[in-house]
Specification:
The chain is an all-beta fold. It has two domains: 15-267, no CATH class; 270-410, NPCBM/NEW2 domain (Jelly Rolls, Sandwich). Helices cover 1% and strands 47% of the residues. The protein has one helix and 31 strands. The protein has one helix at residues 77-82, and strands spanning 32-36, 41-49, 53-58, 61-66, 70-74, 101-105, 110-116, 125-130, 134-139, 143-147, 162-166, 171-179, 183-187, 190-194, 199-203, 217-220, 225-234, 237-244, 247-251, 259-263, 269-271, 277-282, 293-294, 307-310, 313-318, 323-331, 341-349, 356-364, 369-375, 384-391, 400-410. The strands form four sheets. Strands 4-3-2-1-5-20-16-17-18-19 form a ten-stranded antiparallel beta sheet, with no helix packed on it. Strands 9-8-7-6-10-15-11-12-13-14 form a ten-stranded antiparallel beta sheet, with no helix packed on it. Strand 12 and strand 13 form a beta hairpin. The radius of gyration is 23 Å and the shape is globular. It starts with 31 loop residues before the first strand and ends in an 8-residue tail after the last strand.
Length: 418
């Protein structure tokens, strides 16, 4: 269900002074994975960042590279899995404990804070308080989910309407009218007003939207993600301004060691795991092909969840318009490295044409991992990406492939704002 169009309105409550986003610069153990503008990876330590360039140290050499050459930066998956999920402390907080309510927006931002349960002038907005920042009025049309109970796991929606999950397990389906002093909800039984003490979470049926163009998205160690404009890091201090619901909020602060990843072009960097699956078919005479296993994007850095394919198989994914390049890591999982030996074939399919092979990657116990970065033809809405696993030396035995840090990079259609 599409939520009726509402005017965008964001109000910032009065705050005490400006706050800076402080980031301790990378220590010796803080080597990061950097993904460039062609989706190729390298490892380096970050020295500084400004609006024009990123300065990195590789070995004993330091160099400055234009920021426009980079797509993303992140820690590796082992460090991410082992990271503490205790909430990251923002500026102005004496501690990071206490608040575990979570706001998820339709553009992918996930922000810890607290729902303010009072009525405001605009009934089609809700109040969210961010510690150290203040209160922000967020239009309901920008909201995807509000989690009120600590440590509750996200559950899939069961309808295309708004959903309210109660603490007793009941699920209400209908339309959220207002999120103020009470939760006002219209369902099959008419309009009702619920006290917040009964509510576990609220899910709104708003369409997904892309993040604001060319504004970096930061993924923090606790699993939250926020867009930060005017991001700077120099002399162990970084400065930026929080961007929520399309409007600038005052600056924030967070230790650099708590920043697990940054997408410098979140509107153009599309996780492979988010693409629509158009076809799953067995090959080589196989009668059945299991569907791809896709991890939870909420738990994945840059929302790029790992994808596991079990061959022989052909999987077809819908390419977004203006797809320019596909990149990532193809890897045999450890459990498949004894007998696993296969070819991963990556092809592009356009409407009315046969598949065009782009790359053929051989994976085995001796060569279990391979990075790929492939230029695509100008994709339209009808374009698709095809992954095929073909058996190798030992036949269809343990022919499993994990696709990790997989992305589609969209073509830049206009000059980014400065």
């Amino acid at each position: 269900m599409l939520r009726p169009c509402r005017p965008t309105f964001v109000h910032l409550a009065p705050l005490l002074g400006g706050l800076s986003l402080f980031c301790g610069i990378a220590r010796a153990q803080d080597e990061r994975i950097l993904i460039d503008g062609e989706l190729r990876e390298q490892r380096a330590r970050v020295v500084s960042l400004d609006g024009e360039s990123l300065t990195i140290r590789v070995g004993g050499s330091t160099r400055s590279v234009p920021l426009a050459n980079w797509s993303a930066m992140l820690i590796d998956e082992d460090r991410w899995r082992g990271a503490s999920r205790s909430r990251v402390r923002l500026a102005g907080e004496s501690s990071a404990g206490g608040l575990h309510q979570l706001l998820e927006l339709s553009d992918g931002q996930r922000i810890f804070g607290e729902l303010i349960t009072r009525d405001i002038e605009d009934p089609e907005s809700m109040l969210w308080a961010i510690p150290g920042i203040g209160e922000i009025a967020v239009p309901l049309e920008r909201v995807a989910r509000v989690r009120l109970v600590p440590a509750s796991e996200a559950e899939p929606s069961v309808s295309d309407e708004d959903e309210v999950m109660l603490l007793n397990g009941d699920l209400l389906i209908g339309f959220v009218e207002q999120m103020g002093s009470l939760l006002r909800f219209e369902g099959d039984q008419g309009s009702i007003a619920l006290p917040w003490s009964l509510v576990r979470e609220v899910r709104l049926a708003n369409s997904e939207s892309r993040p604001a163009p060319s504004i970096p998205m930061l993924w923090l160690r606790d699993g939250s993600s926020v867009q930060v404009a005017d991001l700077r890091m120099q002399d162990e201090v970084a400065r930026g301004r929080l961007l929520i619901a399309g409007e600038h909020a005052p600056p924030v602060a967070v230790d650099f060691e708590d920043v697990a990843g940054i997408s410098f072009v979140p509107d153009r960097l599309i996780p492979l795991s988010s693409l629509e699956i158009l076809e799953v078919a067995p090959t080589e005479g196989r009668l059945f092909a299991p569907p791809p296993e896709i991890g939870d994007p909420r738990k994945a850095l840059l929302a790029s969840a790992p994808i596991t394919l079990r061959g022989p198989i052909r999987v077809v994914l819908a390419l977004p318009k203006d797809a320019d390049r596909v990149g990532g890591i193809a890897r045999l999982p450890h459990r498949a490295r004894l007998w696993g030996d296969c070819e991963l074939v990556i092809s592009q399919r356009m409407l009315g044409t046969s598949d065009r092979e782009l790359a053929r990657i051989h994976l085995s116990g001796a060569q279990p991992e391979h990075a790929f970065s492939i230029e695509l033809e100008g994709a339209t809405a009808s374009g698709s990406l095809v992954f095929t696993i073909e058996s190798g030396t030992f036949g269809p035995v343990q022919d499993e492939v994990d696709l990790v840090r997989g992305f589609i990079l969209l073509r830049q259609t206009s000059e980014p704002p400065r």
